[in-house]
Design goal:
The complex is a heterodimer.
Chain A: E1 2-4, H1 7-17, E2 24-30, E3 36-42, E4 51-56, E5 59-63, H2 65-71, E6 75-82, E7 97-102
Chain B: E1 6-8, E2 11-13, E3 20-24, E4 31-36, H1 40-55, H2 64-80, H3 82-93, H4 97-121, E5 125-131, E6 134-142, E7 145-149, H5 155-168, E8 172-176, H6 183-194, E9 202-204, H7 209-218, E10 224-228, H8 231-241, E11 247-251, E12 257-260, H9 266-278, E13 290-294, H10 298-309, H11 330-345, E14 349-352, E15 371-374, H12 381-384, E16 391-397, H13 400-408, E17 412-413, E18 416-419, H14 423-430, E19 439-440, E20 455-456, E21 459-460, H15 465-470, E22 473-479
């Protein structure tokens, strides 16, 4: 799987950088009410066997080996939408936005 | 002024920023209420209030019996408001009012009653085996300040699973309900106020998972974090809680299997598997979203599923005849649509549903038809990822061994079901499933008496039942030696040679 960046995702990362001092990481994971989704966290550890599947600027995107196997050769774009009620602990929710994965247009 | 404010230290208060956010009815898109939006400062205030109530207030120092009286009144007040709470839950979350009365308010009230009973009847101290011939005993004590974060699918039930055991055991709490469905948790705070729960014992803040949730999971004054939601956020919470070594209980994702043997009663099993999947639109962590069906009955079982699924009536959740309301949000509807498109791309066979219902009554709501995919391979994404929408994947299994292997081929292990007329055969399957709950010929039957917890990446610890109650208590061992003669303590000789 390859995850490509987009201007929307870059804008989210830039806006979060204004508010957060730590190292930013994007993970693809989920379950329950989040389904499978991207998460932007500050100072976060990913699994030691997780794989880098893309980047937004200098922020790496990581996924578990199970997810990488499941998604095979998929090409995806990391984008962002306005979602003032988004939950998830993903730090861009403070801005009323939520990172999302989309098929390339 | 907001319609609903934050409940901190026994006071209703606006957010320090003055900000609020709207909540909507997912059946119509109409706004229901404005809710005060907490930020970091409000969250810290709530945590400090809970800390004071724990360190200085009466609540942790009351007897179990005294606390039980208050917690029981809490449950009675919930039952007394049953119709209003069920209607509000349906308006805020899109579940039907029928579900609201039976599952939401009924379970919520019963949970308070059950934990009142535990506080009153379970021993708060127990004898332990003696050490070096001297008596030992165990004391159960509250943990302290508990930060609790609940999801949007069952707002009342999830809140009760958190609040009731925590306060019954003498802890103080800060609860953050999901921003999409915060109203009934705030109604519970009104009840706490009315029944005279001491200030600071229960605080409720609403706001973004990131700023509010991060403070709750990492603040040094918090002793325990309890969370229900996604596996990834559960992992995040463990990291945030790690530097101060908080106790953590997590109830996370699932992709539970419903194993169907070849000796079933078709009608019962089809109705049951559909209930296991489509109850509340599949927005349930223990939903049986993979039906693993024995090859001998596979085709006829799919026909039975389709026939039954097409009888499920979608409509206004407030109408008591409605079987299925809308999904909770536009985002959840979009997620469902994306997974259905993905299922088709992956080569699964769509046998019913797969679209939004047509008609004016559905135009403004987030409705989606119950959707069934046949010929699903367990390695497909629709069989491995949690959709949290009304989508069932039907997978063929040659025999019981293969069914167990498929059921266990998941990163999750939350729940599952076995449908069979031969109970002994069903138990043979259930006992081999690596999952926290298995129902034989039933589904979704979670009760306040029975522990609920996840294997694998479905969670840490237990909620409900005695195990759930004990998760809110520390266990202190006290060794009592009445012999003060140093010479008779042979262990001392390891250090003192003379």
């Amino acid at each position: 799987v390859r995850v490509h960046s987009s201007p929307e995702a870059e804008a989210v990362v830039a806006a979060v950088r204004e508010r957060r001092r730590g190292t930013l990481t994007i993970t693809l994971s989920g379950g329950c009410c989040d389904s499978t989704a991207p998460f932007l966290f500050e100072d976060h550890l990913v699994g030691r066997d997780w794989l880098r599947v893309g980047a937004v600027g200098d922020v790496d995107v990581w996924a578990s080996p199970q997810l990488v196997a499941l998604w095979g050769e998929d090409e995806l774009v990391l984008s962002a939408v306005e979602d003032p009620l988004a939950e998830s602990f993903s730090v861009e929710t403070d801005l009323g936005r939520r990172l999302v994965l989309r098929a390339p247009s | 002024m907001s319609d609903y404010q934050l409940y901190i230290d026994g006071q209703w208060t606006e957010a320090e920023s003055g900000e609020s956010f709207p909540t909507f009815n997912p059946a119509t898109g109409e706004k229901i209420a404005d809710v005060a939006k907490a930020g970091e400062a409000d969250t810290v205030k709530a945590i400090e209030a809970a800390r004071r109530a724990f360190d200085e207030g009466p609540w942790p120092r009351m007897s179990g019996k005294e606390r039980a009286d208050v917690v029981r009144r809490f449950g009675e007040a919930i039952f007394a408001k049953m119709a209003d709470l069920a209607a509000l839950e349906a308006r805020d979350g899109g579940g039907t009012v029928r579900k609201g009365m039976l599952a939401d308010v009924g379970t919520c009230g019963a949970t308070f009653q059950k934990f009142a009973e535990y506080a009153e009847t379970l021993p708060d101290r127990e004898d332990l085996p003696p050490a070096m011939g001297k008596p030992n005993y165990l004391m159960y004590e509250p943990i302290g300040v508990c930060a609790q974060i609940t999801p949007w699918n069952f707002p009342l039930v999830m809140a009760s699973w958190k609040i009731a055991p925590a306060i019954a055991a003498g802890n103080t709490i800060v609860l953050k309900p999901a921003s999409v469905t915060p109203l009934t948790a705030l109604e519970l705070a009104k009840i706490a106020d009315e029944i005279g729960l001491p200030p600071g014992v229960m605080n409720v803040v609403c706001g973004p998972g990131a700023s509010v949730g991060e403070v709750m999971a990492s603040h040094p004054a918090v002793d325990k974090v309890a969370f229900t939601g996604s596996t990834e956020v559960g992992a995040r919470i463990m990291q945030l809680a790690a530097p101060t070594v908080k106790k953590v209980t997590l109830e996370l994702g699932g992709k539970s299997a419903a194993v169907v043997t070849d000796d079933i009663d078709l009608d019962h099993a089809a109705k049951g598997v559909l209930f296991g999947t489509f109850f509340h639109n599949g927005q349930v962590c223990e939903s049986g979203t993979r039906a693993v069906v024995n090859a001998n009955v596979y085709d006829e079982f799919i026909d039975a599923l389709v026939e039954r699924a097409e009888k499920i009536t979608l409509g206004d959740p407030q109408n008591p005849m409605t079987d299925q309301g809308p999904l909770v949000s536009a985002g959840q509807l979009e997620t469902t649509e994306r997974y259905v498109a993905l299922g088709l791309e992956e080569g699964a066979r769509l046998v019913t549903g797969g679209k939004r219902p047509e008609g004016e009554e559905f135009a403004n709501g987030f409705y989606y038809e119950p959707t069934i995919f046949a010929d699903v391979d367990n390695s497909m994404r629709i069989a491995q990822e949690e959709i949290f929408g009304p989508v069932l994947s039907v997978i063929k299994a040659a025999d019981d061994d293969e069914a167990v292997r498929i059921a266990n081929d998941s990163i999750y292990g939350l729940a599952g079901a076995v449908w069979s007329n031969d109970v002994e055969r069903a138990k043979g399957i259930a006992e081999r499933m690596r999952t926290g709950t298995v129902w034989i010929n039933d589904h979704h039957l979670l009760t306040p008496d029975h522990p609920f917890g996840g294997y694998k990446q479905s969670g840490v610890g237990y909620e409900m039942g005695e195990y759930g109650y004990r998760e809110y208590q520390m266990k202190k061992r006290i060794h009592v030696d009445d012999d003060t003669n140093a010479a008779s303590h042979i262990t001392f000789s390891m250090l003192h040679s003379s």
